[in-house]
Write a structure and sequence with these properties.
Number of strands: 5
Strand content: 5-15%
Strand order of the largest sheet: 1-4-5-2-3
Order of helices and strands: HHHHHHEEHHEEEHHH
Helix content: 25-40%
Oligomer: single chain
Number of helices: 11
Distance between the termini: 57 Å
Length: 263
Amino acid sequence: MSCCCDQNDDESTLTTPLSSSSSSSSNPTVTDSTTVTISPMNSHFAALMYGDTLRLIFEKLSLTDLARASCVCKAWNAVASDDDMIFEAFMAPWKLLEVVGKPTSRSFWRDNGIGKFAISHRILRGETVASLAVKYSVQVMDIKRLNNMMSDHGIYSRERLLIPISNPDILVNGTCYIELDTYAKREVAVLYLDGKPEKQPGMLLNRVTSERGKRRVIDSLKRSMQVDDGTAQYYLSISEGDPRAALSQFSSDLRWERQTGLA
């Protein structure tokens, strides 16, 4: 089913001013005391074809209703699809100060539920998914689901995690950045608690140049360390692509975990 705005609207008919004669002829039973709903289904539709009037009305709509309005006709679509209008509707429920960036697909704007937002957390040494869940008062599974993690070890291959938002008040007067997270494989409106986005994390394997060579090294580290792919990649990255240094660092961390009772 296509939207009405996909059809060829008769602009002259849609924008013709209302007259008492036309109104009375099409609605013979309507009197002055009758309340008439202005909608696309009656002769008063022309009253809703002016941009200024539409903007005043659409500013009161939710994001979902704004999307519905864009499917009525070309005139409505032009106003309802305006970037400023969409941004305001997206921010309004959470009282955001600003949204920075544009999504790769306009389907991003179809929903502005709390699941569309996340906190960016830069991972520090010794942190675990469980400790972050306690810190931010969220569930471990929610963190893993949002970040597309199969196991807790996936944290070691990343420089940051996206944290689900449990308290919507944290968004009030905040600034969110629309980002495509390569690990989560989704676009998210990200809130940085320090007020600014971090530099895009990168893991450069300086000494391993070919993809085939990199894959062999990672597979070898996985067997030696008895860890998953993400953990092997993490240690190879922090050792600048040196497999010996990666094994040494892993052994050091393992000893520390055993001494502290974490292992």
